[in-house]
Amino acid sequence: MSAPFEATLAWAQSQDAADPLRGFRDEFLIPRHEGRDVHYFCGNSLGLQPRAVRPALSAELDSWADQAVEGHFRGDLPWMDYHEFVRDDLATVVGAQPSEVVAMNTLGVNLHLMMVSFYRPTPERHAILIEAGSFPTDRYAVESQVRFHGYDPATALIELKGDEANGAISMEAIERVLAEHGSRIALVMLPGVQYRTGQAFDLAAITRLASRHGCMVGFDLAHAVGNLPLQLHDIGADFAIWCSYKYLNSGPGAVGGAFVHERHARTTLPRFAGWWGHDKTSRFQMGPQFVPTYGADGWQLSNPPILALAPLRVSLEIFRRAGMAKLREKSLRLTGYLEWLVQSQLGDVLEVVTPGDPARRGSQLSIRVLGGRERGRALFDDLVERGIIGDWREPDVIRISPTPLYNRYADCVAFVEATRRWAQRG
């Protein structure tokens, strides 16, 4: 039986030519290096700029110049309702009802806002479950929330350690920690995809298990949104938060997003209130009593930043045309091809850290260089000098993410060939 892949550039180019999503690459601006497109594998850190972003921003600048304050009410995209123009497409990407999502703030801010409502500790139940080695945004936020409520992170933070190869976490490990500590856990706060290992978690299974133990459930989807098909409404998570500058291609420091399940749409849980979260029908009566608008919109604090939302609107329109199911189909094959190349061509140089089961990963492969950190860093620096852009995560991981909207099979071959030449020189 022949292998499903071939390691030649000609084979990769034939796959690119037959790719039904190949045209989407042309909708992005690809950085250049020595007269050619870079091989960009860093969409898990900062997505590329869609070509339509610049005219979208120019249109809003023109509205500001031509209409000033009247831009809030005039034109095809009046600013008063601008956050609503991304709502339906955003809901589709994360598998939610439109009323359950809102584009606002940034990930760290949204996490704190959600924890005001969904981390309600008591002396008997005040612990938070996170993964060991969580991204600093999450770690700093949950630790500060624990301290804010008067508890000690040394006992209130339960860190879930990897029990599989390379630090991956099994469902059995999650089951064990909830069986032991579930009665004192107020909030389970885990990622959709772990940033360092690239492991994707079974969000539905985690939600069911944590809910049985009476825990609130929230997810950081920074590395999952736009990467994996999500079904936030159906799985029943209490909340989720994400950034939009990675796979959603919305630009550095882009507006983030939040999901609040519809069962909390009229919640009596406390929240930090802001004017733009007030009921839309009476907002401009300027009354003293805060009346939250229905759904996730009720967690907004301020009016939407138009110039920051325009790139998100553009990117989400691309996702609507591409479709998450088709993107996931290509992602599985493209990432599988990269993994096969690494294992078949570079097994004596590289080790894949990310789980091998395609259902337990997205577009990212985390890779270690055999021989230690210094060799790993040397390879990473050499790749950058040759226009092959991934990213480095301490202590020793190179993250390579073949993003289906704009990456090609030929990019994967270029990565492997450059790595092989580096190894031969060293």
UniProtKB/TrEMBL annotation:
Its EC number is 3.7.1.3. Pathway: Cofactor biosynthesis; NAD(+) biosynthesis; quinolinate from L-kynurenine: step 2/3; Amino-acid degradation; L-kynurenine degradation; L-alanine and anthranilate from L-kynurenine: step 1/1. The modification N6-(pyridoxal phosphate)lysine is found at K246. Its cofactor is pyridoxal 5'-phosphate. Pyridoxal 5'-phosphate binds at L107, F135, P136, T137, D138, D220, H223, Y245, W275, N303. InterPro entries: Kynureninase (IPR010111), PyrdxlP-dep_Trfase (IPR015424), PyrdxlP-dep_Trfase_major (IPR015421), PyrdxlP-dep_Trfase_small (IPR015422). Keywords: Hydrolase, Pyridine nucleotide biosynthesis, Pyridoxal phosphate. The keyword Transferase does not apply. One of its GO terms (molecular function) is kynureninase activity. It catalyses: L-kynurenine + H2O = anthranilate + L-alanine + H(+); 3-hydroxy-L-kynurenine + H2O = 3-hydroxyanthranilate + L-alanine + H(+). Homodimer. Belongs to the kynureninase family. Catalyzes the cleavage of L-kynurenine (L-Kyn) and L-3-hydroxykynurenine (L-3OHKyn) into anthranilic acid (AA) and 3-hydroxyanthranilic acid (3-OHAA), respectively. This is Kynureninase. It comes from Dyella kyungheensis. The lineage of its organism: Bacteria, Pseudomonadati, Pseudomonadota, Gammaproteobacteria, Lysobacterales.
